[in-house]
From TrEMBL:
InterPro entries: Flavin_OxRdtase_Frp (IPR016446), Nitroreductase (IPR029479), Nitroreductase-like (IPR000415). It comes from the Bacteria. Signal peptide: none annotated. The lineage of its organism: Bacteria, Pseudomonadati, Pseudomonadota, Betaproteobacteria, Neisseriales. Keywords: Flavoprotein, FMN, NADP, Oxidoreductase. This is NADPH-dependent oxidoreductase. GO terms for molecular function: oxidoreductase activity. Belongs to the flavin oxidoreductase frp family. Coiled coil: none annotated. Gene3D superfamilies: NADH Oxidase.
Length: 246
C-alpha cells in the first residue's frame, strides 16, 4: 500500500492544537489541492474563505456551538458553495442564471464542497498537519454569512480546522465494511446485524479511551436525527437566494 492510501485509511479528527503557525507555503499548497479539484460542469462553484485572525476564529468557535479547537488552531477554512460567482459568468455570456432556484444547485454545491474538503484534509495531513471538519457552522449560518461578509447565492456549508496536533486522537472504528461497500445492488438484509455488531465495537472503543459518556452508534445517531438539529439551514439558504421547489 502506498503512503497516500495509508494516510487516508488512518484518518483521525484532532481537537487539540499547538500554538504554532502554518508556514505560508504549506498553507498555499493545501489550498491549491482544493482549488485544482474537480467540480460539476467545471462550474467551479466553490469558494474558500481562509480565516487566520484570532478574534474571527473565536467567533466561529462560538457560532459552531462552543468548539474551542477552532479558536486554538491557527487556520479555519470555510467551504462555501458559490453561485454568485457563476451568475457573473452566466450574465457575461448574455444569459440568466436560474439553477439556484432548484435543489440541484444546493446538491451540486454540497458535492463540490465535499470534494474540496476531502482534498484539503488529505493534502493537509500529507504535509504533517492535523484536521477536523466542522459542520457546526450551520448551527447559525446567518452569523457566518455576516462574519464572512458572504454575498447572495452563497452559503457557509462546512469548514475545516488546520494546525499542528498538540494531542493526537485515536482512530475511531467504523461500521463493518460490507455496510459501506455494496456490490451490484443495495444489500439491506444484513444491516441490522452489522449495526448491532458496530454498537458493541464502538462501546469497546469508548472504554479503551476512557470516555464514560460514549454511546452506541445507534443511540448517538438517534440523538441527532430524531430532530432537525440545524433548523436555520433552509431559511438562511432561502434568504441567500436559493430555492428548493424545482
Amino acid at each position: 500500500m502506498n503512503q497516500t492510501l495509508e494516510l487516508m485509511q488512518e484518518h483521525r479528527s484532532v481537537r487539540s492544537y499547538q500554538d504554532k503557525p502554518i508556514p505560508a507555503e504549506v498553507l498555499d499548497a493545501v489550498l491549491d489541492a482544493a482549488w485544482k479539484g474537480p467540480t460539476s460542469i467545471n462550474g467551479q462553484q466553490v469558494t474558500l474563505v481562509v480565516v487566520q485572525d484570532a478574534e474571527r476564529r473565536r467567533k466561529i468557535a462560538e457560532i459552531a456551538g462552543g468548539q474551542p479547537w477552532i479558536a486554538q488552531a491557527p487556520v479555519f477554512v470555510a467551504i462555501v458553495p458559490d453561485f454568485y460567482k457563476t451568475r457573473i459568468g452566466v450574465e457575461k455570456a448574455g444569459s440568466e442564471q436560474v439553477i439556484h432556484n432548484s435543489v440541484e444547485a444546493f446538491a451540486v454545491g454540497a458535492v463540490d464542497a465535499g470534494i474540496a474538503l476531502g482534498n484539503i484534509m488529505t493534502a493537509a495531513r500529507s504535509a504533517g498537519l492535523s484536521v477536523v471538519p466542522i459542520g457546526g457552522i450551520r448551527r447559525d449560518p446567518q452569523a457566518m454569512v455576516e462574519l464572512l461578509e458572504l454575498p447572495e447565492l452563497t452559503f457557509p456549508l462546512v469548514g475545516v480546522v488546520l494546525g499542528y496536533a498538540d494531542q493526537d486522537s485515536a482512530i475511531k472504528p467504523r461500521l463493518p465494511r460490507a455496510s459501506f461497500v455494496h456490490r451490484e445492488r443495495y444489500q439491506a438484509a444484513e444491516l441490522p446485524a452489522m449495526i448491532a455488531q458496530y454498537d458493541a465495537a464502538i462501546m469497546d472503543y469508548w472504554k479503551s479511551i476512557q470516555r464514560a459518556d460514549g454511546q452506541p452508534w445507534s443511540a448517538n445517531t438517534a440523538q441527532y436525527y430524531r430532530n432537525v438539529y440545524f433548523p436555520q439551514v433552509a431559511p438562511v439558504a432561502r434568504k441567500q437566494g436559493f430555492g428548493f421547489d424545482q
